[in-house]
Amino acid sequence: MSQFVINLIFVGASFALYFGIAIWARAGSTKEFYVAGGGVHPVLNGMATAADWMSAASFISMAGLLAMTGYGASAYLMGWTGGYVLLALLLAPYLRKFGKFTVPDFIGDRFYSRTARLVAVACLLIASTTYVIGQMTGAGVAFSRFLEVSNTTGLLIAAVVVLFYAVLGGMKGITYTQVAQYVVLIIAYTIPAVFISFNLTGNPIPPLGLFGTDTASGVPLLQKLDLLVTDLGFAAYTADVPNKLNMFLFTLSLMIGTAGLPHVIIRFFTVPKVSDARSSAGWALVFIALLYTTAPAVGSMARINLINTVYPNGVKEQPLSYEARPEWMKNWETTGLLKFEDKNSDGHIQYYNDKSATFEATASERGWQGNELTVNNDILVLANPEIANLPGWVVGLIAAGGLAAALSTAAGLLLAISSAVSHDLIKKTLKPDISEKGELMAARVSMTLAIVVATWLGINPPGFAAQVVALAFGIAAASIFPALMMGIFSKRINSAGATAGMLVGLISTCVYIFLYMGWFFIPGTNNFENVEANWLFGISPLSFGAVGAILNFVVAFVVSSAGKAPPQDVQDLVESVRYPRGAGQAIDH
Questions:
Q1: Which long-range contacts (CB under 8 A, 24 or more apart) does 198-206 make?
Q2: Digit-coded pLDDT (tens) for 518-570
């Protein structure tokens, strides 16, 4: 049986399961569409939250970043996991007690302002749409390889699939679909990791294998990887980062951005009680940890396997002949995500850091005229089983897992976008007398438009999946998180302060990002080249969300101090929300 047929079986079977669940759990009311009726079991909600959380960036791109960047990419691990702890402890139970469907609903009522609600809607739409671009990019990568089509075609297929079950089922359908997707993605991620860890180190537990000994050379695995990459002109895999301020701000941006992401927050409204919100957060952290403790091993072992493929006899010997390249390279070349350019016309694949001054003399002596192999970070996890010569069914399994990761988060984000438009913009602001049927239709139409925009931007994304997702986290960090924190823990912040803070945080962060990444992420419209020499105080656009959040807090407190205190009933509401006990079902409208 060919690999293509095996892939079709695994991917087709998983999609049949998702579609079946979507049809079974079709939403018939706005409450089912927004919060799955409010009766999801905490363990199931924890599993669905983990799937919602572990996006294409976690499954596909994060290990690729770790593989190519090493220690510097650990900020993604620290930021994303640390942020979830913040969300579980500081936001989830309090927002659940407040009982509204959406984040703009909380901000609109807490800050007693239509303007604040509209600004929150804008912040949510910008952050969520940016995040969806990353998911569609990841889904396009997976579809293009495993269905053997172009990247653009893969992206379009992903859009149609996620649109079907997200629009049909709403939160009810998405919740139970995400439970199934979590099972698929965690099995798909860990089984290949177990095989690869055992092959390289003799230890079947990947996190332990990472700190074990390479069986082929008898040296510690990380030490071997350091030797391999430095011999090819790259920085040592375990080397420290030179710009610690940027790494700190980037980690902080990811943490508070995580805690401000609306598609995760909305999951805590799907459980019956506040205690269930805390419980489901705990379960989600357990489910998330299974993947996040495995990712560093997957990344480092993928880098070793890639180098060993190109240099089968060692990095100081003749590299692989292009004609003798393995089948997995041929497969990924058809997607355009792996490219070979024979710069010295010798028929061999030279893979090294051609920007390294220390390696320049060595390359010249060997007759090399530049790096000839370009590998997209996003393909490494998906290609890992093929690189390691694992059985065909493992390749098919990881195909299904990669797609599950991308589609589960895309569905959650689309729901957050549609809820903001139909519930907060139309129902709460523009047309309060809209019927429930009309609101449900508006939610589905807005979800459709969102997926069209995300697909269009995903065809020419501003970076690979994890980079685009980091931008979304920065926007959420600068705009949504401070408003939620001040809304819960400060009775003095008034509507003018909250609105001004959100606007300053959002605008400053977006402008800084657009200056380097292109205005509205349109390629070629950036004002400055996105390199460290051009960054303000050495702060990357990916890290600026933390600065935007600080500006948000400062402006909100200054403006609020100069104005009137919030009405007494609002202060009493804040006092009540601080004690999560006693909350009932999520409030409808």
A1: 199/388, 200/301, 200/304, 200/305, 206/294, 206/297, 206/298, 206/301
A2: 887 777 888 999 888 899 988 999 899 999 999 999 999 999 999 999 999 99
- For CA atoms 244, 245, 251, 255, give the dihedral sign: positive
Q: Which residues pair with 517 in a beta bridge?
A: none
Is the pLDDT reported for residue 70 higher than 60?
yes
Q: Which two tokens stand for residue 199?
A: 């092959």
Give the model's pLDDT for residue 170. 67
Contact between residue 186 and residue 290 where contact means Cβ atoms under 8 Å apart: yes
Q: Give percent of the chain with pLDDT exceeding 70.
A: 93
Q: How far is the C-alpha of 95 from the C-alpha of 283, rounded, in Å?
A: 18
Evaluate if residue 586 carries a pLDDT over 50: no
Q: Which residue intervals of 420-535 are DSSP H helices? A: 436-459, 465-489, 495-517
Residues listed for the chain: 589
Listed in sequence order, the residues at least 6 apart from 362 whose beta carbon sits closer than 8 Å to its beta carbon are 233
Cα 143 to Cα 15: distance, rounded to the nearest angstrom? 13
Quote the CA–CA distance of 352 and 398 in Å, as a whole number: 28
State phi, psi for 212 to the nearest 5 degrees.
-95, -160
Q: Per the confidence metrics, is the pTM higher than 0.85?
A: no
Domains of the chain with CATH codes:
3-291+388-465 (1.10.4160), 307-381 (no CATH)
Half-sphere exposure of 186 (CA within 13 A, CB side): 22
Residue 131 CB partners (closer than 8 Å, separation 6+) = 55, 261, 263, 409, 413, 468, 469, 472, 473
Residue 370 has pLDDT above 80, yes or no: yes
